[in-house]
Amino acid sequence: MTFRMTTRHISKRAVIIALAAMLLAACAVSYAAPIPFPSVNIGVGTATKPNDVAVTVQIFLLLTIMSLAPGLLIMTTSFTRISVVLAFLRTAMGTPAAPSNQIILALSMFLTFFIMTPVWQQINKEAYQPWKAQQISQEQAMERAVKPVRTFMLSQIREKDLALFVSLSKLQRPKNAEDIPTLTIIPAFMISELRTAFQIGFLIYIPFIVVDMVVASVLMSMGMMMLPPVMISLPFKILLFVLVDGWGLVIGSLVKSFG
Fold it and tell me: What's the maximum distance between 2 C-alpha atoms anywhere in the chain?
């Protein structure tokens, strides 16, 4: 018995020693051949040429524009109207978790790309490609890129909202739309988009409210006051929405509203 126990202890010690030797060998190999890592140096130096300063400023401006890109996408495109209308639709149906926020945002984003494609193609044709071919300067490219976006926003703005922000900015009475600054057009565009989205949301609510009222009246007439009407009306609202091809009607109306 003593001999067997000793043999077992020896075998365990041999395994432990072998594992330790393997670890030491791996560490020795890693120290002998270290993995090269790229080095990144960031510093502030003295510019010797004016072009160095110009390139640095352009890089900072590019990073700033990239950080503001989500806000620009929301403020100057059709994203606001689409996302608000889809949120109203989900609330009117009584399904706060279906579709989820991720699906609504993704659908709003891709519909925005679909609607804004002609505008972005015009920017690419008239501003980006000439600038890329060095036919125009960067300032001219920016001016040309802003024009299609301004035209799109002005086509969706109510005159009342635009006049409100022109008066709030205390500017002189503009002779035409080109005299209005872009920073004045953007908030007016957002308010107009919210107003239009709320109007569409009101129209979406009406059929679902009718279904809720009918179901509640039937339950009260049957004396089933303890049964929540929402439990009965929800399947009927989903069925009604599917039968009338609700998604096609809503999405089609949203896209056509920007025509």
Answer: 109
pTM (2 decimals)? 0.69
CA distance 184 to 181: 5
Pairwise CA distance, residues 183 & 169, whole Å = 10
Over the stretch 151-175, which tens digit does the pLDDT of each residue have? 888 888 888 888 888 888 877 777 7
- The C-alpha R_g of the chain, in whole angstroms, comes to 32
Q: Give the C-alpha separation, 92 to 77, whole Å.
A: 25
H-only helix segments in the chain: 2-32, 50-75, 79-93, 101-123, 129-132, 138-156, 159-168, 182-221, 229-243, 246-256
State the pLDDT at residue 4: 46
Q: How far apart are CA 139 and CA 130, in angstroms?
A: 12
Q: How many CA atoms lie within 13 A of 182 on its CB side?
A: 13
Is the confidence at residue 127, as pLDDT, over 80?
yes
The pLDDT value given to residue 223: 76
Query: Cβ distance 212 to 229 under 8 Å?
Result: yes
Q: pLDDT exceeding 70 applies to what percent of the chain?
A: 74
Q: What DSSP state is assigned to residue 181? A: -
Q: Taking the alpha carbons of 166, 170, 171, 173 in that order, is the dihedral positive or negative?
A: positive
